[in-house]
Amino acid sequence: MIVGVPKEIKNNESRVGMTPAGVYELVKNGHTVYVQSEAGAGSGFFNQDYQQAGATILDTIGQVYAMSEMIVKVKEPIAEEYGLVRKGQIIFTYFHFASSEPLTKAMIDSSSVCIAYETVEDEEGTLPLLTPMSEVAGRMAIQQGAKYLEKPAKGRGVLLGGVPGVTPGKVLVIGAGVVGIQAAKMAAGLGAHVTIMDVNMKRLRYVNDVMPPHVVTEFSNEFNIRKHIKTHDLIVGGVLLKGKKAPNLITRDMLKEMRPGTVIVDVAVDQGGCVETTKATTHENPTYIIDDVVHYCVANMPGAVPYTSTVALTNVTLPYVLKLANNGWEAACRMDKSLEKGLNIVDGDVVYKEIIEAFSWKEPVLF
Ligand SMILES: NC(=O)c1ccc[n+]([C@@H]2O[C@H](COP(=O)([O-])OP(=O)(O)OC[C@H]3O[C@@H](n4cnc5c(N)ncnc54)[C@H](O)[C@@H]3O)[C@@H](O)[C@H]2O)c1
């Protein structure tokens, strides 16, 4: 198969869909790989790295789309790319169709085969191509939170780890999923006192088993949240209700009960956030303050660490890329049910029912 890796042109996106290691594997399997010039530069992978792995470098994004049977990228195509996508071409990337009707219509019109990273789902119901980004965001939440707790950043002026003779900072993590556990682990590593909350007792039992004693669990309910926000320095929101808006677990009135300079990192901002006062921010302007509480609500946290994010993402996408290239999409999806769940639009038909529901379209066309 001919596989193309374009440079991401979405604003502030420095990740790339394939590393030189991925190119090497594909070429070893007899495939041809075209990489757009400088596609990996933002993640620290340069043209000569790709060439040494066996790729051919093409100058323009138009050439990559025109010459490839499968496009492997990171973000959904943006409007400038819609016209480049060809009939029958496989596009393997994050799409998040339900959040964009114009994108969905453009991909229907293109008659391409759209396989979305975010809906690839394994037998346990987990989303293996989303997990690494949650791992990155969970770990980053503490790094960012620690920075914004510093006084010049308008934080409380607390060092999370404390020092001998001074008690460490306190971190409250709401949600003990992928984000929450990674955040708790990082905070514990810095020496902070950590409270982690969830409504799922299985998750809390797991955390209790694997974390050190300065990470304590608590059942998540309004009473307990109100109790803890008064004393914790950094609050991390890592809640998810699959396919739904995150619940507002911290309401506007609760900000007044926090100490000035408390920092909230609402990682769940991409699902609307679990704090009533959350509104999405960017890496250029990541924080804002309401009632003396610092809010960090960057919707694409992994974008700030493109090297780590690219490698983490491509580690998990590559086995699927190889399956698609070796077998073609139809056979690959027949043999791998988790990959089949990634099929969203096929030859102009929407085959993922949540997309049809999201736009309240009639006459669902199912695969
Ligand atoms: N901002 C970013 O850059 C970024 C990056 C990656 C992920 N995310 C987002 O972070 C969020 C969490 O992702 P995840 O992978 O950890 O999800 P996950 O499904 O692994 O974990 C979510 C956890 O929330 C718990 N939960 C549900 N309701 C709760 C409640 N009322 N109180 C406490 N816990 C509750 C669930 O039981 C689950 O354990 C998602 O919205 C995801 O999209 C954001």
Q: What is the helix/strand order?
A: EHEHEHEHEHEHEHEHEHEEEEHHEEH
Which structural class fits the helix and strand makeup? alpha/beta
Radius of gyration: 22 Å
Assembly type of the chains comes to single chain
Helix content: 25-40%
Distance between the termini: 24 Å
Largest sheet: 8 strands, mixed
Described by the principal axes of the CA atoms, the overall outline is elongated
Low-confidence stretches: none
List how many beta strands DSSP finds.
15
Strand order of the largest sheet: 3-2-1-4-5-6-14-15
Helix count, per DSSP?
12
What fraction of residues sit in β-strands?
Answer: 15-25%
Ligands and ions found: nicotinamide-adenine-dinucleotide
Averaged pLDDT: 95
Q: Can you describe this structure?
A:
The strands form 2 sheets. This protein has an 8-stranded mixed sheet with strand order 3-2-1-4-5-6-14-15, with helices on both faces. The protein is elongated and about 60 Å long. It is 34% helix and 17% strand. The protein is an alpha/beta fold and 367 residues long. It contains 12 helices and 15 strands. It starts with a strand and ends in a 9-residue tail after the last helix. The structure holds nicotinamide-adenine-dinucleotide (NAD). The site of nicotinamide-adenine-dinucleotide (NAD) has 32 residues, from α6, α7 and β8.
